[in-house]
Amino acid sequence: MHKFHYVIVVSDHNLAELRSCRYWHKKEALLSLSLIITQRMEKPATRLTHELRKLQLPLEMVELRGNTFKGETLENDISPWIENTLLPSLRALNDAPCVLNYTGGTKQLALALIMAHTWSHLHYQPYVEGQSLIEIMQPESGQYKFTEHIDLHQEELSPLEFANLYFDAVEQLPAPAEMLWLDPGQKPLYTERLTQETQRGTPWFFLIQCLENLFKGNAETHCAWPQDCSTPKLKALINRLLQDVTANPPLRHDTDGLHWNPRHPQAKSWKKWIAGQWFEQWVADYLLERLQLPHSMLVSNVKLGNEARNGADNRENSFLQALKLESNTQIAGQRESDIILAYNQRFLAVECKADIHKGQAVAQWEEQLSSWAKDHGKIQLMIATTPLARIHMGEQRFNAFVRRCLSVRVVLWVVGQNDEAALKYALGKLPVISG
Question: Which CATH number does 4-155 carry?
Answer without folding.
Answer: 3.40.50.10770
